[in-house]
Specification:
- It is a multi-pass membrane protein.
- The protein is α/β, with parallel strands linked by helices.
- 47% of the residues lie in helices and 16% in strands.
- The protein contains 26 helices and 24 strands.
Length: 805
């Protein structure tokens, strides 16, 4: 009886462990057969299915699982193994179960259904029947518990799979809603044409709609590009500080007046220059920080940058906000489109996808009532010896003593760490101790303090000390503060928080270096400088107005392809000659080859050679003295703007560019063509000559793209990339009766084809979609050939149109 008892017990324990380790099993068996030909056929089906699923293909490319064949006792099998996470196992099993109904999850040791049990051959046989009944009773109890546990596990799997399906539906629905919004805005925009007794109100309303239309179209382009994995990841050397400054410039406008303390804590082993993709890193950091700031009403948001390994950086974003609920966490990275024409979750969706495309990962570490922590790890190649870029001149002593008077402890610690990089002795003083007057300020070389926190006695004491000692006073201000810095006789310089390493370096140079780097000494005397206060945004400016600068030669130095296209589209239409350089080194090559440029539009944050360095090199050559340089930047801090002028810019335009400011700037620096009509006639829309194209209403598509043919072509390009293989996907889904996927495709295509003016394709997918509404799903297979033919015709039409000049 003991032998029977141990047999039952061992078998039960084995089954218990198998059931509870279901999710973490080693393999998923897809197919088993005695013939190799059947297995080869199933293997091809499996490969085709995985390739048709972008998320499964991406998982395999990242080596999250592998597909293999094996022969076990003359039986051939196909299995999925090397599965890295439970989530991947769940996704694979539930997706592949659709085409391999007999698939099951199993550990390798029981592939052949051979349970290994252990017997104790030295055990004496006990004839007591109670032991048998006890074993049977144990079997029943453990069996019930096992079934209950299995049921719970299965429920968890199904819930997670349902969440994945819901996520996919919301992503597909997001695209359809954007298309509908573009169509709606376009109709409103057309409605504002014609005469009216309230032309001013009508013009204002039309302007608002055009801005929303342009913005929505740009969102669609970006979403399509990410959805189709068409984001090009570049690897170029860039200055990490420029990326941080650009991010800060964008956030400072969005959260102006906020009481939140934004902190950059950068480890001292982080180099100035790294090799990677600065544009997409900037976008990831902007989106995640913006999300953190939105969830934080008061308190702080900190970006901590550290080395994750020799070839990767970790960006940790910590906020002290209200936290994110469990329900919000489920849809945190899912973009949705609300009834108020707002995009929810798009930023984090973009950040996560871009992180993956750069070979990294964005994940949430924790979230509760004390705040939220995000981790973003991205691989970069570190530039050797880039630490030398912060080497101070010999005339600046290394024995400086710094005192930081700062109310926020985290901010003070981050600033201290950056000064300690230079081996300075740094102390932090609390408000209580500073107010007690027990601090010997005369023993310090620099005091960093928010001057708004000082009372009259403090200021008097500082003035007295400065009469005897060379104490430097640096005003600390918050980037979100609406208070403007006002110079005082006891203030040497100021700096805005959050601070990065390069700002500290530049501050030290400004305080202690005797070289004269004023604007007047760097900028050619004969050229004027236009500050933001002197520049006015011109009203009612269209592309036609730029004909006043016809024939001028402009060099655009810009690494962002979309910004290149926007400026190129506006300026070339009216006869302005444009040359585009992708970075500073290219710009210098063009200038050496052609010294006949009338103006340079220079982006500041670029890889290889940024705008600061490029402008400095240009201004060091007197032959370029007569060429005005206008900086293009998203930077907004006073220190950044001063640096732009200090290196030799004549003016600057803030990104994203506004056409009214661009026109005003060109008007200031270019001599207008006296032969040009002051009120030029409207240029005939280029789209009209394409009005005869079969299946594609180009004129309508351009109207939906806010009248920009360049923008319209960009939408078409993204459409082709994302949907050129959708015919094959449709055929596969129909053959497998996966009609939910077909329905989503119809919704996608309805929104997109309406936007681009593909009226024949729209009519077809609209008819297909109605079959779902009328419960005629059985008719969908009849549309597969028609869909493929219409799609191919549309793609040919688009390609011919795109090739036309």
């Amino acid at each position: 009886m003991k032998k029977i008892f141990w047999y039952f017990s061992t078998t039960l324990i084995l089954n218990w462990l198998l059931i509870n380790n279901l999710i973490a099993s080693d393999s998923i068996i897809l197919s088993q057969d005695m013939t190799q030909s059947k297995i080869n056929k199933d293997l091809k089906l499996c490969e085709k299915f995985i390739k048709s699923k972008p998320h499964l293909k991406e998982l395999r490319d990242k080596k999250m699982f592998s597909v293999s064949t094996e022969t076990v006792y003359s039986k051939h099998i196909i299995k999925i193994d090397n599965i890295l996470t439970p989530e991947v196992a769940i996704e694979l099993y539930l997706e592949l179960k659709n085409i391999f109904p007999n698939a099951f999850i199993l550990q390798d040791k029981i592939i052949n259904n051979r349970y290994k049990t252990t017997e104790n051959r030295n055990t004496k046989v006990n004839t007591d029947e109670q032991l048998l009944w006890f074993a049977i009773f144990s079997l029943a109890i453990v069996g019930i518990l096992a079934l209950f546990s299995s049921s719970v596990q299965i429920k968890k799997i199904l819930i997670r799979h349902q969440l994945m399906q819901d996520k996919q539906k919301k992503i597909e629905g997001f695209l359809a809603n954007i298309g509908e919004n573009i169509y709606s805005l376009s109709k409103k925009n057309i409605g504002y044409k014609g005469g009216s007794s309230k032309e001013t109100e009508k013009s204002s309303a039309k302007g608002i709609i055009e801005k929303k239309l342009f913005s929505t179209t740009r969102v669609m382009i970006h979403f399509l590009r990410i959805k189709a994995k068409r984001i090009k990841i570049i690897k170029e050397e860039f200055n990490l500080n420029n990326v941080l400054n650009g991010v800060l410039g964008l956030l400072s406008h969005r959260f102006e007046g906020s009481n939140i303390e934004l902190i950059f804590e950068i480890d001292n082993d982080i180099p100035k220059k790294i090799i990677g993709d600065p544009l997409h890193l900037s976008e990831v950091l902007t989106e995640v920080l913006q999300n953190a700031l939105e969830y934080t009403e008061n308190g702080e948001v900190k970006l901590h940058i550290s080395l994750n390994s020799r070839n990767s950086l970790k960006f940790t974003i910590i906020d002290t906000g209200i936290g994110i609920t469990d329900r919000q966490l489920e849809t945190l990275f899912i973009p949705t489109y609300t009834s108020n024409d707002e995009y929810k979750g798009l930023g984090l969706f973009v950040a996560k996808e871009l992180s993956l495309l750069m070979g990294g990962e964005l994940k949430i570490i924790k979230s509760d009532e004390n705040g939220t922590i995000f981790d973003c790890t991205i691989p970069f190649t570190l530039v050797e010896n880039s630490r030398d870029d912060y080497r101070l001149p010999e005339n600046i002593s290394k024995n400086k003593k710094i005192l930081i008077y700062e109310h926020n402890e985290s901010s003070a610690f981050a600033i201290k760490k950056m000064f300690e990089y230079f081996n300075f002795k740094v102390d932090i003083v609390s408000p209580q101790k500073f107010n007690s007057n027990n601090i010997n300020l005369a023993s310090y070389d620099i005091l960093l303090v928010d001057i708004n926190k000082l009372d009259k006695s403090h200021i008097a004491n500082i003035r007295d000390i400065r009469k005897q000692n060379d104490l430097k006073i640096v005003h600390l201000s918050n980037v979100f503060s609406t208070k403007r810095f006002i110079a005082h006789d006891y203030i040497d310089d100021w700096i805005e928080k959050p601070i990065n390493q390069e700002r500290i370096y530049e501050l030290l140079i400004s305080l202690f270096n005797d070289d004269d780097t004023s604007i007047d000494n760097l900028l050619p005397k004969k050229l004027k400088v236009i500050t933001p206060d002197n520049l006015v945004e011109m009203d009612n400016i269209s592309t036609n107005n730029f004909i006043n600068f016809k024939g001028r030669n402009i060099l655009i130095v810009e690494d962002n392809i979309i910004d290149q296209k926007v400026m190129y589209s506006i300026l070339t239409k009216v006869g302005i000659n444009i040359t585009i350089a992708n970075h500073g080194e290219e710009a210098l090559e063009y200038l050496d080859a052609n010294n006949k440029y009338d103006l340079i539009l220079m982006d500041i944050s670029m890889p290889i050679m940024d705008g600061y360095e490029t402008i400095t090199k240009i201004r060091n050559q007197s032959k370029f003295d007569n060429i005005p340089i206008i900086s293009l930047t998203s930077l907004a801090l006073d220190n950044d703007i001063n640096k732009i002028f200090r290196v030799g810019s004549n003016g600057y335009l803030r990104k994203p560019l506004k056409i009214g400011y661009l026109y005003s700037t060109l008007k200031e620096f270019l001599i207008e063509d006296s032969t040009a009509s002051p009120s030029p006639k409207k240029l005939k829309p280029k789209a009209k000559k394409y009005s005869g194209i079969d299946g594609l209403d180009v004129e309508k598509g351009i109207k939906h793209s806010n009248g920009s043919e360049e923008l319209y072509k960009e939408v078409l390009d993204e459409f082709v990339s994302a949907y050129e293989s959708s015919g094959d996907s449709l055929a596969l889904w129909v053959s497998e009766s996966r009609y939910e996927h077909v329905k989503r495709l119809c919704l996608d295509m309805k929104g997109l084809t309406s936007t681009i003016g593909a009226y024949k394709m729209f009519e077809l997918v609209d008819t297909m979609h109605k079959q779902f509404l009328y419960n005629n799903v059985h008719l969908i297979p009849k549309f597969v050939d028609s869909y493929k033919k219409e799609l191919n015709d549309l793609l040919d039409t688009i390609r011919k149109y795109m090739e036309e000049e």
